[in-house]
Amino acid sequence: MKKNNDIFDRLIRAARRIPENDQTPYSFEKRIMSQLRDVKPVDNVAVWALGLWKAAVPCVAIMLLITTWATLSSTTDANASSDALASELQYTMTQPFQALEESW
Question: What is the DSSP letter of 76?
Fold first, then answer.
């Protein structure tokens, strides 16, 4: 760490020895202004749209993989699974009303 500080100190001392020059190069302002005119403003909406479109591809791929997995891993007895689903749905839908009945 001391070596880095020593190098930094020597660099600062060397920079301070260089005399200051108050003159600017010929047409410096014109060159800078022409470069500033060429810079296009950043379109934040376009940046967001590009990012969302790039994210859509992996999302669709994940959706297709999960759909395939769910389809292939489904049980062979569709009636039993649909009855279980129906009872779970009924329980889920009536649970808030049962809580109201208990409080009255």
Answer: S
Domains of the chain, residue spans:
43-73, 78-104
Q: How far apart are CA 48 and CA 56, in angstroms?
A: 12
Which residue's structure tokens are 């009945």? 101
- The better pLDDT of the pair 62, 87 is held by 62
Verdict on whether the full-model pTM lies above 0.70? no
Query: What is the distance between the alpha carbons of residues 97 and 100, in angstroms, rounded to a whole number?
Result: 5
The answer to whether residue 29 scores a pLDDT higher than 60 is yes
Cα–Cα distance measured from residue 103 to residue 96, given in angstroms and rounded to the nearest whole number: 11
What six digits make up the tokens of 94? 């009536």
Q: Which residues are CB-contacts of 74 (< 8 A; sequence separation ≥ 6)?
A: 81
